[in-house]
């Protein structure tokens, strides 16, 4: 089995970058909210505003969730790469001791 540890770390870093973009998106989106009454002051407009506000809140939550999951994925990628490097070092040492 061959493992490209550098590629694994590169992928982990890309996950961190994606997490950062998700965080930026969530931060930007959470700074604004659809203003009450923007669509008018009648029942259908108020109902639409409620649905829009709920969707807005949902998007912020999803972006925060993506940020978290992508960060965890990056952590796991780096941890896995380190485990492979350590295993390779142990195996190389074991072979040197036999020879």
TrEMBL record:
InterPro entries: DUF2563 (IPR022534). It comes from the Bacteria. This is DUF2563 family protein. It comes from Mycolicibacterium pallens.
């Amino acid at each position: 089995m061959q493992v490209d540890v550098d590629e694994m770390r590169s992928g982990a870093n890309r996950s961190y970058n994606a997490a950062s973009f998700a965080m930026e998106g969530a931060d930007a989106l959470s700074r604004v909210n659809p203003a009450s009454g923007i669509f008018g002051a009648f029942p259908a407009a108020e109902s639409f505003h409620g649905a829009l506000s709920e969707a807005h809140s949902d998007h912020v939550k999803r972006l925060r969730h993506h940020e978290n999951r992508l960060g965890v994925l990056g952590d796991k990628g780096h941890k896995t790469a380190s485990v492979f490097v350590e295993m390779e070092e142990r195996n190389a040492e074991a072979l040197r001791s036999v020879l």
